[in-house]
Amino acid sequence: MMTRLDRITLLAKLGTQLGQSDEQLDAAIRKTHQHNRWLTEENTRLMLAAIREELLEEEKLKHWANQYAIPEGQTSKKVGLVMGGNVPLAGFQDLLCVFVAGHHALIKLSEREKYMIPYLIDVLTEIEPAAGHYFSILERLKGFEAIIVVGGNEDASHFQAFFQKYPNIIHKRRTSVAILDGQETDEDFKKLGKDAFRYFGLSSRNISKFYLPEGYDFVPLMRNWERFSDLIEHNKFKNNYDYNYSLLLLNNIPHYSNGSILLQENVALYARIASLNYEFYTKKETLIEQLKEREADLHYVVSKTAIDGLNTVPFGASQNLSLHSYADDVDTMEFLLNL
Questions:
Q1: Which of 83, 115, 261, 312 could be stapled to 28 by a disulfide with Cβ–Cβ 3.0 to 4.6 Å?
Q2: Whole-model pTM above 0.90?
Q3: pLDDT (tens digit, 9 = 90+) per residue, 212-229?
């Protein structure tokens, strides 16, 4: 059995390996894109770089793990993981937590993302064969004692009913929103574009809606976001853009467009792919209270300033990974250590 330090050291070695040239890694990235065109090679490499720098750095891992009482030599539990496929390597952080906690991960891969997680597990077991005892990839989950569903989304209620007799974490569909004040700079718009468009807006960390002051001038925003015009070169994104643009035109719905992204006034938090919603506010204090009422639907509120009672991050930071940031604000490690 590997000790906690052994497991952390192994993860750090995985991070080092990911920073090196590897034909097998390149092949897995290509296969991922061929299987799911949303998971582009560029985006998968971006996610791998973030994982390497933020989740697999040895000192960060040690500092994070030291905050928990992780026992040595305990009987491990079999933890089922239903993985997601909306963005590259969705669910890796949960898998990392299961491993560091010393449990055995029973993994049900997403049909949308079949290659990257197996590749990473292969690397771990090549470096340290004993790690193979901690992972099983299954076509059908069985024999688990607890369950984490990464790709919950609209199926969350179904999963909650199906797995209710097991200790569980069912990640629900969430989204992120941003509050603007009309004083944004070009650099602010650049950062907000990253929050909105990285991974084509398919992550719960992506902004799907903006809250704007009355009389907001859209010209600087839309002009600045022309820098993201390469989005429309992606076939699936373009198909969504064309379809949603047609709906707006056919229904005579007022909107803004710069040829690659659509903005429409809409009270809904969630927006269609290639679209963003916006809503005007008059008093920021009233808006904050409204957002607190919708906190269960929000991953982040992107804001220039921190807001008490809301999970806020600054412009450009919504996609930043951290060992200390858990999906749905559920401490995965605490859950795993209490099994």
A1: 115
A2: yes
A3: 999 999 999 999 999 999
